[in-house]
Amino acid sequence: MTTKTIFPGQANYLDAFIKTAQYLARLTIHQDVWSETSKLLVNFWGADLGGFGDRRSNGEIAVCHWTFSTELRERMDLAAEVNEEIAEVLDSGFLSWRFVSSTPEPLVIAFLPISLENQVTRVLLVGHRSSGLFPKDLLNIYLALAGLVGTTAERLASEAELRKHRQHLEELVRERTARLTKANEQLQSEIIHRHRAEEALQKAHDELEVRVQKRTAELENAKEAVATERQKLFDILETMPVMVCLLKPDYQVAFANRGSREKFGEDRGRRCFDYRFGRKEPCEFCESFNVLKTGEPHHWEFIGPEGSIMDAYDFPFVDTDGSVLVLEVNIDITERKRVEDALKQTLAELSRSNEDLQQFAYVASHDLQEPLRTVASALQLFEKKHRGKFDKDSDQLIDFAVDGARRMRALIQDLLAYSRLNTRGQAFGPVDMKEVLNQSIKNLRSLIEEKGAEITCNHMPILMGDPIQLIQLLQNLIGNALKFGPAISPKVHVSAQQNGNEWIFSVKDNGIGIQQKYFERIFVIFQQLSKKGPFHGTGIGLAVVKKIVERHHGRVWVESEVGTGSTFYFTIPDRMER
């Protein structure tokens, strides 16, 4: 097979170069100069192959953008044969060529340096099927073409960079424009809001001006009213039947009413300790000015002129001008103290008299029992021995004498028990009122069975008290209810209900009732309402009840309706120590 040397005609070199330059000049950044140049060499310049080689970052030689003519039917792997030449051109910067013998036909390849930014960074590979060298003119044209490709690559890179910068600039412009637009909108909104705020501020200013004028007028009126009220206060203080004065912190007298002036005289600009006591320094015993430190009212006593005893009440007082004063109210309690001392002496004498009376009642009732017992026994023996031997009137007189002795003995025993309530009482302790009620009922069992009575109750609490006296208390109340109840089947109900810090007990019966005018009298000793008829007693039972309740710091009263029944109430504190 004969190999021909196929090169473009020399006459066409310049024309082809110009057209190539025009074509490359029209390339845009969206096109690949390397692929386009490789295709141009084969399709326009008639080369059998075109491509580019460069050195990667790891130092390896790489060939890319291969383009082959149709005569080279299969793509051949020429990398191994061209890598050394590519490396040499990249290092030296000079063109080179070589024959490739591994192809079916002889192939000569030119290696042309391409400079980017004054540095050889790529190698243009142009191959023709030929066994001879490249014509010199063609080689120069290819060398110029390599320079043109480098220039085009730099142009496209610059255009790409410029486009990138332009896009970035346009983005910045858009962002800046958006920010400016937003800022402008905000500025417009702020201007509108500011106008509105200024209008609102002006309106508020006008309203405030009106309110200030109104308030000023109100303050003037209030000042006049305060002055009027202040004068009214001084007028009231002036006529009060006590000594009133206003003291300044420097002991000067701001005001003194008539009572104070009558007692201490006119101050005439002198300080209180001077015109009251004739002293040159503040009184060491004075406690009036403590209120300026504590801000709290203060009560104390002092000895005034001529030895009078003064009861002093001091209060912090703020005057209309804001100054802090001491409002002092003095009461001459000399006479009251004298009366109190006399009353204390009287109470002490009364207490001794009560003690003597209680002792007398105890001694009298105790000492009278023995002779009374002798009289009663003698009368009973006389009755047994002589009943029926005398006339009917004599027998009746004997009955009266025996019954009177018996009643006198009961009265003395009750009086003795009454006198012992305060002296023989037990110390207070926890008491189960249910057990107290049960014991009271047990003590009255004979009377309950005799009457056929029904005794009921609800819940009973546990209290502090004297269990013996509380049994006596309920026993007396229930006994009275049975005594003054119906002759057949009387009913008695005992209840307890808590009310705040105390318990209210009640004993309710269905007896004859009590008139309201006797509600207080029945609790007085020896005050028995019914001295005749079937109701017998000494008149001490309810007095004992009252005394026991009072010893337990309680109250006792009765509610009743004649013909319906009575309810006796008494209270005992929920918690009590003694």
From TrEMBL:
Its Enzyme Commission number(s) read 2.7.13.3
Q: What InterPro entries does this protein map onto?
A: HATPase_C_sf, HATPase_dom, His_kinase_dom, HisK_dim/P_dom, HisK_dim/P_sf, PAS-assoc_C, PAS-like_dom_sf, Sensor_kinase/Photoreceptor
Q: Does the keyword Transferase apply?
A: yes
Name of protein: histidine kinase
Which principal EC class is assigned to this enzyme? transferase
Domain PAC, which positions? 296-345
Key word Transferase present in the record?
A: yes
Keywords carried by this UniProt record: Coiled coil, Kinase, Phosphoprotein, Transferase
Q: Which PANTHER family does the annotation name?
A: PAC DOMAIN-CONTAINING PROTEIN, PHYTOCHROME-LIKE PROTEIN CPH1
Q: Where is the Histidine kinase domain?
A: 363-576
Reaction catalysis annotation: ATP + protein L-histidine = ADP + protein N-phospho-L-histidine
Kindly list the GO molecular function terms attached to this UniProt entry. phosphorelay sensor kinase activity
Q: Kindly indicate where the leader peptide sits in this chain.
A: none
- Residue ranges that the Swiss-Prot or TrEMBL entry lists as coiled coil: 155-232
Q: List the lineage, top down.
A: Bacteria, Pseudomonadati, Thermodesulfobacteriota, Desulfomonilia, Desulfomonilales
